[in-house]
């Protein structure tokens, strides 16, 4: 689109991109500061274990999520069986469940003192752990399973959408050539879904690398916990920054490898939805197997943890329904609301500049601003504290130079630091949502508006914003729930005496007292259901 876009728009786009990429620059700069003692000690002792555990965790979670999600996505998209309409949206529900809550619930169920092992000992008259073998829940494998149960919907959603958009003519051709459902899936549907699966795996890997609470609760040392421990226990910000740089190298290398692997892959297909008559009709045992698999997946990933949370909340309602609960709930709500509005504003502004600017250089701000989501919360916390601490000291030094008393830590000692961190991390979600809506707006509308003499501001307010309302609303909801759930950044950056629902619940989980925080956890889950239901309805309308 060619429009007389003033330089002020471009400058504002680059300014936003510079602010969002500031933590990344700060981490690299801080990592270059010499800190031989602490980092050398880590390198010689535990760092290889941290790196190996991180890579193994990412591998097993991605593999487990793929194995769980792909069959469910293909069944829902390509087959008719009892309960299909329910599973189409219900299998997204685990995304609303914090992974560390699921980890605590299953630890409580499966641990030596839990009800399952108690039942086994009573049935088989076992007296001690030496009498039988039971997998260790608090282990790398246990953490991988917990994360896979929560994160598989990322792959499920993308795979289901891709399977539904695959050309029906190709499916008809496979039937004519004698391919049954299984051969059609293995030889046609799965290879064509590879780009979507790769994106889903990348999302799962980034979320796994960013997880702190689950691996910390399961005592699995990873780079995320190493950053946390190095910073708070060793007191070495430089060593923590070096570990953060290693984490970023792992994440970006994995994303780059995935894109390099499919750089020459091109898929062309007519994107027509799969209607009722084109799906495979499953009967008898196959129908029961498909329905049973989806029910089991939904039960173990969402229904069982939620029912146990509800049981805890009901039993400890009087203790949980307190002034602290209301205070922390309001803290979460107002911070999430502020961040959602700011993130969507950033997304609309950057995508508007990208759409109407004739300069290729104006494509860069939106791309740079999307890198914040790749920063794990612990890494982001370090990247933010470094520049904001310098800024706080500079402000106080200026006050003292002018003969006034300094205002204190106005940036790092207030909720500003949380809002700033959340905006950097989740602006990418808003940008993606707005970009998706922009793709549905015909460029001819812009040309007509320009012909009528509309300036950029009028074009945005009078033409684009009304047409972007669905994408804006979806972006608001998605950013809101991510802010409600975000724990590592909130845990490290919260001001003294400030708590939100995520940190409140985590404190009880750490103390093995989730019962007292179950009500707060349910609030996080219920709030998270709203954008998931809305997202699913939007996808159903588009398909």
TrEMBL record:
One Pfam annotation reads BPD_transp_1
Keywords, alphabetical:
Cell membrane, Membrane, Transmembrane, Transmembrane helix, Transport
Domain of life, source organism: Bacteria
Cellular component (GO) terms are: plasma membrane
> Which GO BP terms sit in this record?
transmembrane transport
Q: Which residues cross the membrane?
A: 12-33, 53-77, 89-107, 140-159, 196-219, 239-257, 288-313, 333-353, 373-390, 410-431, 472-496, 516-535
Please list the residue ranges annotated as the ABC transmembrane type-1 domain: 51-256, 329-535
Q: Which InterPro entries match?
A: MetI-like, MetI-like_sf
- Stretches of the chain forming a coiled coil according to its record: none
Describe its membrane topology.
Multi-pass membrane protein
- Protein localization: Cell membrane
Q: Which family does it belong to?
A: Belongs to the binding-protein-dependent transport system permease family.
PANTHER family the record matches = IRON UTILIZATION PROTEIN, MOLYBDENUM TRANSPORT SYSTEM PERMEASE PROTEIN MODB
Please report the name of this protein according to its UniProt entry: Iron ABC transporter permease
The species is Shewanella atlantica
